[in-house]
Amino acid sequence: MACVRLPSGREVMSAQEFTEWEENHELRGTEFHDALRREVSKRMQISNFRQLSLVCGDQILGPSRPEEPLLAVVRPYVARMKAELFSAIRKNALRDMVQLLEQPCDPNTTLTDGESLLHSAGRYGDRTAVARLLLEAGADQDKADKAGDTPLHVAAHFGHMEVVRCLLEAGADKDKENNKGWTPMHIAVCQGHLGVIRRLLEAGADKEKSDKVGQTPLHNASLKGQLEVVECLLEAGAVKSKTNNVGRTPLHLAALAGHLEVVGCLLEAGAEKEKSDKDGSIPIHLAAEYGFLDVVRCLHAGTDMDRGREPHGRTPLHLAALHERLEVLQYLLQAGAGKDVEDTRMALPRCISVHSAGIWRWCSAC
């Protein structure tokens, strides 16, 4: 009875399975042989590029149907073709890649930094056909390099939408973290690739996943000032007041970076402007400290201007004085901030005089 075994003796197709397969495939000659090779390759989970020989006795199986057990022999990968493989990707030479894979060459070949052929396809634009070919040849779509980046991380970084789509269709892990804890979504957000972000969201990527410092994609978008990305994430239901490892929300980060439009967008979406971080800072403290007058104005309404932060109880006015933010100081004083409020180290007038005579004059005039 015909069956298929490996040289190790492990059975790939039992005699019963072989008979059932034959009955379901009314094929003759070379069609039978080719179909059987494809079936055995599928069961062995190897690509069609691997040269699989079916041996009957001491002969390669011909077009006739076998009556005795078959031996499945897989040709090993050809070594020392790494340079040619990566060159074919750089040149986008699809025909060369087909010929190399038919040698057969290992589709999971890597460089010293762990970059695979699929990583390289994700790095260059217009490599979708090459990526599909590599996947067909058995390339690992989730293979990570030494930085922990998968091909999807790389394609997301460079904004190559079609390669991203190809990898997602192949089942790539859309939420896999690299060594920084960044997912492909984090990376696409930092680069501002809105189309890639939308495709990842459509594929069900986790928009709330935190990196090693506790930041979600919305934190990154807010810090980078990516307004359209912030709007996209909020429309997708991103949590607007989630905190990172130091207790800061996306609004804190937008405020300290001076991104007025993002601050306004977050406030309109209902972000909490009185939420404090682990040092007791609310967003207006950070805007005052870094001297972003327009952001201070935006955050002013309905905010306790005399609220102090740890460890010294410094108000936005103290911080503006300490960091010599003259315009912010002037605005806060004119808005009624308490210039007599003391922190635990010194009263405001002394604080101002220590740091800047010019600022002292502003305070004295008020």
Automatic annotation (TrEMBL):
GO cellular component: nucleus
Annotated Gene3D superfamilies: Ankyrin repeat-containing domain (1.25.40.20)
This protein's UniProt keywords: ANK repeat, Repeat
ANK repeats: 113-146, 147-179, 180-212, 213-245, 246-278, 312-344
TM annotation in the entry: none
A Pfam family this chain is assigned to: Ank_2
InterPro entries, A to Z: Ank_Repeat/CDKN_Inhibitor (IPR050776), Ankyrin_rpt (IPR002110), Ankyrin_rpt-contain_sf (IPR036770)
Nucleotidyltransferase is among the record's keywords: no
The name this protein goes by in its record: Uncharacterized protein
Source organism (scientific name): Effrenium voratum
